[in-house]
Known about the structure:
447 residues, alpha+beta
Amino acid sequence: MAVSNAVGGSGGRAPTTGRWRNWAGNVTARPARSVAPATTEELAAAVRAAAADGLTLKAAGTGHSFTPAAVTDGLLIRPERLTGVRTVDRAAGTVTVAAGTPLKHLNATLAAHGLSLTNMGDIMEQTVSGAAATGTHGTGRDSASIAAQITALELVTADGSVLTCSAGENPEVFGAARLGLGALGVISELTFAVEPEFLLTAREEPMPFDEVTDRFDELVAENEHFEFYWFPHTGSCNTKRNNRSQGPAAPPGRVSGWIEDELLSNGVFQLACAVGRTVPAAIPGIAKISSRALSARTYTDIPYKVFTSPRRVRFVEMEYALPRAAAVAALGELKALVERSDFKVSFPVEVRTAPADDIPLSTASGRETVYLAVHMYRGTPHQAYFAAAERIMTAHDGRPHWGKLHTRDAAYLADAYPRFGEFTAVRDRLDPERRFANPYLRRVLGD
Length: 447
């Protein structure tokens, strides 16, 4: 069944110039020009024009990465017109979508067709291609990242050629480009595996830190999707268990849901962070109050309404993927670090899991994985805390999230990823002149 593209018109918009800024405000770029193609043909023409003019180029999503992965001083390709669900194939269990489509629009369209992705992250503002390219993930015992759910893709390469890629067509490119950091070309469309829509029951409840860590393996094994947040300066956590349900649907009440998801998780939390930034000494006391503010609740709804939440408080973040077996030790070391230091940390530490996958640059490539994410409120000094946390993560063979702050380089990452050379060989073949390079990619992939 075909679904019409959400963007009309066949002509490309004229190139524009102007500053680009990411969501957190910590990364800016001033490209020589930017374009917003609406079709694969317009995108390919823009790539050829950039090459003719000797410009490097990058595609931007919605800017939810904290790294300068999309920064360019050449051509910036913007996503806002390359949108829309192109086909829904119920028989094959797939949906094909233009690369610039926000996840929230994909989720809404799938729900209208009684379909769903199997797993997703906790926000849905990103474009589908940006989320895949940087390794966006949720939490799951058996189900993996956004990129791992891709079954085919269309890629515009450095010379303006268009490659269709899947396990059966250009398989080496497909394997690498599912999570490609924008280093192999510009993705124009993606095909995802989908399934009939199902219900998830979410069980959220506070739990002491010691109990969560003592029971971590049990909680991961017993639940399809388990995650928790530890509040620094406290011994308190908030846990979330999502499991498939026969129903009936029982979403949060309008008032109670607003209190939990908007008032407490965004409004009051924003105020608390602002106070903490002004008076850091108040943060431990605020943390103790915050850790007790969210109460236990259970609700049942369609997947994207359970997996995702509004995130309106802006922050910077570093996240590392560790071997699953290192979870409790690393988190214990992080807690000890906060307790013995002068760091004042207003944001909780997020802990999630993923099964091993087969994508060369996936943070879960080849190993069962736990994710530890540290955050700081935007505008608050974060460098010393993140650096100390990073030393803990790297001591446990950690792999940094590609879209979040870190200091690793290609020498470290080549050891961290057994298939790193496989990816760089595809890059050498597709982009020998480094048309898609920028300083971030040179650091993490080499020249």
